[in-house]
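In this supplementary section we document a worked example of the pipeline. Step one takes a protein sequence of length 114 as its only input; no multiple sequence alignment statistics are reported here. Step two produces a three-dimensional model, which step three serialises into structure tokens for compact storage. The input and output of this example are shown verbatim.
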Amino acid sequence: MCLNCFCALLNLTRAVAVINDAHIDEFSPDHYQYAVTFLVCSFLSLYQIYLMHHPQKRRHSLACATLGSICLCQIYLWEYRTNILILFHITVACLGTFVIFTRKVSHKLPQYSL
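The serialised model returned by step three reads:
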């Protein structure tokens, strides 16, 4: 969970840095596309944390979709990252997906009533 928070924070800071690098005189939509991709990666890391703490019925399919989306974002951001950073972010996403898959869902007791 801490690694996912760290990855989300890294992606958020990189998004702000990419937005700040875009100069007003030389408008390039590529800068904003990369910034949005960093923000999406940050959101996906935070969504993995949400899936870890609030299990849902479709959490396995959502975890796989989140992992695939994070991998696609990392491939798109190939120019802005080193190979070690890409490997780190994908490894953290795989670890988060593993935690989501192995976490047991607590069921209600048979005589549970409010």
